[in-house]
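Input set for joint prediction.
Command: fold jointly, output tokens.
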Amino acid sequence: MGLLEDTIAKINPLDKDAMAQAVAHINSLTMPPWALGRILDLAVELAGMTRDITLPVARKEIVLMAGDHGIVAEGVCPQPSAITTQMVYNFTQGGAGINVLATVAGAHVTVVDMGVASDLSELVRAGLILDHKVAYGTKNFAQGAAMSREDAIRALEYGIATALELADSVDVFGTGEMGIGNTSPSSAIVTVLAGETDPAPYVGRGAGLAVERLAHKAAVIRRGIELNRPDKNDGIDVLAKVGGFEIGGIAGLILGAASLHKPVVVDGFISSAGALIAAVLSPTARDYMILAHGSAEPGHMKMAELLGKKPMLDLSMRLGEGTGAALSMNLLDAASAIMNKMATFESAGVETEGLK
Amino acid sequence: MGLLEDTIAKINPLDKDAMAQAVAHINSLTMPPWALGRILDLAVELAGMTRDITLPVARKEIVLMAGDHGIVAEGVCPQPSAITTQMVYNFTQGGAGINVLATVAGAHVTVVDMGVASDLSELVRAGLILDHKVAYGTKNFAQGAAMSREDAIRALEYGIATALELADSVDVFGTGEMGIGNTSPSSAIVTVLAGETDPAPYVGRGAGLAVERLAHKAAVIRRGIELNRPDKNDGIDVLAKVGGFEIGGIAGLILGAASLHKPVVVDGFISSAGALIAAVLSPTARDYMILAHGSAEPGHMKMAELLGKKPMLDLSMRLGEGTGAALSMNLLDAASAIMNKMATFESAGVETEGLK
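tokens >
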């Protein structure tokens, strides 16, 4: 059995006992019933994931998967692929949005080269990024498969391996990505997994595509889907035909984290495409996903619906990199602190009259 | 001129130059246009408030105003007023939700007795709470005015005084409250200020009122409005007739903070009632308000609409105490960090092709 099958086999549902214990503890705390709403829902889910009602979430890791995309040859995004490389350098120098917001969150950032179309060995040798490069960018999925089935499995297993490598020093993972062109495969993935043929409702401006180019972008993605005919019941097939290396890495990271009973905070549109692939491979893996925020990309709401999840934040963000995951980690800290530090009615001498 | 008029006279609009500088700086940072959405909107607003594009927000203070309400005699809430006092003790012992979430936010909590119906002098002498008690709870506004006009002014000026006392060590204020029965005056205030007569759409379960008692609660509030006929153009009159001491304190705190060019993070339903009173007294004061979260109380959306503000978070919370304000302060830290620590396209050597 390979790493992928082995990992999927280890993914268990949430621990119902821990969740029931969490609910009982919450109901003893000095506040009206469920008065902290979704923070308490989150606390219960985290208890179920971690099997621990103290909710260990202190050690946070944003895993930023980077890759390039052959589809950019079709004129679907205004930026050149070179910006992926430039941004990877920016990440290693601490100057990008994710560096700043990870610091605010108390999170570490690990950058992984999953398939950037340039030689990053200088950064690998310096220990600044992890090398899981599958290839120098995907192929143009408007003209054939984005990658071979073997490479899709490789991307997934590199993602799993990343989770396993980091696991000993991580309580919570967050996903992030960088890859010029990667909204196109993400739009393709949500279209296919929704069982639809027209990507137009799920195509957005990405990093700033002109509104008048949206129809062209949708037509290119539609052509890619029609040409490749991905099998929506086969996550590897969807990833191979219309996906991306960083999207596969994210899917693998999620599967790895779920197999370890560790929560994964899923960032925005591209990360959710990875989450969708993970969910096809293991529906149970969804139990370990926390959707960080609702992206400004129009296809993200559909992704959330397919995942059966409601995003925690809604701040019209569309940066990616894991910035939404980093921002929402504060809510996990809040949930954990409530479980550990709040007084009970009994300890505080507060009456429960009218509260039960 | 009294402290109230003097404070209102000092409230200036946001600084447009600082806002323009903030926008220009943001557009130089290594991300697609406005890719961090509302975090960037917030950064610009904070620059306008503080006149400083480095956005000083490190020193955070939650001011928790406590008061009791005569309206509880009408059976509008299941808990006895004694719980207000018990919770004030809980706050001073660090065991309440606000203590926990303020710690997560890096915020200090100051508890103010604005009108609790018990003798809290023991806590005042111990330096654990501030004493701005107007009276031992309001009168029952279903049978007459909640307080005299003089006491309403006193509550507002105590709130202003609190802001002035704390200002030297505070960059950002957050509002909070505790007061059994205080959803009723808050529902009355939003009804009156919306220019409506039926409070029913704005009446909710507060800290857990049974659904079948909602119609009674709405009828009591309606009677209070019809009996008192508050003048919606006179914030003092509305506060006096159907308000509360802690609601007046919150309104005053907001006016004081605005006069000092300091941002105020407004918590949920009751805090927004205070914000509405402040906005009647000084429409410009709204410029300094940040709505923390959308409360689960049904009247809160109308309050946000009247204030012309969109809440930052939406987590189905209904605890009050300032817990939503504390949770959302992380977003202010994020906005400030982005302004201070992110690389520019030029400094990071990232192309701007396709991004402008």
